Amino acid sequence: MAANLLTPPNSQDPPDRLLNRTAQVAIGASNTLRIPGDSFHDDSGSWFKTGAGQPSVTEGNQVKYFIDAPETFGEMVAAIRTATTSGHFIYLLNWWVEDKLELLKNDEPGVTLGSLLQQASDEKVMIRAMFWDQQFSLQNNAEANRINKLEKGAAIIDSRGNEDILPILENIIPLHFGSQHQKVLCVMGEQGLVVFCGGIDFNTDRVKSKVEDSSVTKGAPLHDVHCRIRGPAAADILQTFIQRWNDHPEGQKHNRPPNLGGKGPLIVLNALPPSAGPQIVQIGRTFGKLDYGFAPNGETTAREIIRRAIRNAKRFIYTEDQYFVGNPEVLEDLTFALKQNQIKHLTILLTHWRISDLPLVQHHRREFIGKLKAVGQDRVRVFTLQPPGSDSRQFEQGLIPHTYIHAKLWIMDDEFAVIGSVNTNRRSWSHDSEIAAGIYDTSNDKILTCRLAHWFRINLWQEHLNLQSPEGAAELTDGVASAVHWLHPPPGARIHPYDHTEPGDQHLPIPILGLPLELAIYDSVIDPA
């Protein structure tokens, strides 16, 4: 792709092999031809929770999803390059940033986030960034320092969530192990406001395997998803950056005019972005009770988007999640979908516990998934990415590439999708800063269309099931019938059934603790409510 042009939206045409096919008809008789595509209906009112305390639901958005980092990075580069003059801006919220990471690799060597921001600053573009204060690490500090040295740049290392007994111990003994987990890019440039959110940060384990770089996460490059939003909902994501920045003491210092030692106040919108597409979007967030001026009692609207969608599912639910250890609310909602709504399948793709970085992940899955199985039985189907025939020792060492699931997504009935940074655990639903987009597509612009959520699932399943041909897309069109391919995988599929009852686990690296104390630490520190 040309890394200086924003790409068009995802296709809305039904899979080609469903359109271009021979139809057998009888002469002199009535014939019925099934025209493929999602029939028009606007059921948006049932998918979104509205009312007091809930985020706005906006129409007229153009949402484009991206699968994995290379595709995402290319689009981010194109968006950043639209910011070319004063009055334009680039705002970033990230959990992890490596500004020397090559973003385009073979397509255009040498392009990094750092080089893009340097060029933008030289062109008088405003650059602002907030990066998470990584526990036990100085990661992100050098990146923030380099932005602060730019003429038009200012950056903050945000430690909210690391509250501890003594402030001097903040980077040594954090109390909650909370985090600022949002992954957001907002660009105002020649093509208007373009924003991104999802699960992808600027880090090496998105593009390199452990064979190439031993320092990266097991199972890298990570499987993940992200999305680009244009239209009114983009302003809601931008508002998240503005609120966090202006609420932070360092942000207030940077907002001062240059003659008072600052870099100047944020550039903000004078009006909502114009309508850009057919999608209806609601942006939800999580903020802990950390005395935010804009959310003094915290905020949990991200989980409300997910909860409403789960309870509204009538046919099936598909989710990908890094941890999938659950919480009381999601257990209640999935139980409702399985028991009351009688959905045909709940299909879950997660990271295998042997390459997970979460202590006691298998212990909590045994309980959580076990309860779901008790209700849904064989309708609850759990998988991991583990190519058939792969060496088990190499897999456990994390040397099999692209087996770590970092995505946080939900797809319901091929009608509704959630893309964001929200894991299925307790902290993402209540404590850490998170952001997610709930997306509904009426598919009402022409007769033959497939909704965004529909194509999103098809494309994900094509990758996992090795059905990436046009015929594969057609085969996967029905989200209920084609789920048989998870139970009987085609040749080359990368999936493997996950045994939630398997003994073993990742433990805290202190053998003398014992399970009861480990669980107490997990509940109060690692995955707090």
Tally the structural domains: 1
Decide which structural class fits the backbone: alpha+beta
| Euclidean distance between termini CA atoms | 43 Å
Shape: globular
Query: What's the β-strand tally?
Result: 16
Number of helices: 16
Strand content: 15-25%
Low-confidence stretches: 164-175
Q: What helical percentage do the residues reach? A: 25-40%
User: Mean pLDDT, nearest integer?
Assistant: 92
Largest sheet: 16 strands, mixed
Identify the notable features of this structure and list them briefly.
16 helices; alpha+beta; 16-stranded mixed β-sheet; 529 residues; PLD phosphodiesterase domain-containing protein; 16 strands; globular
Give a brief rundown of this model.
The chain contains 16 helices and 16 strands.
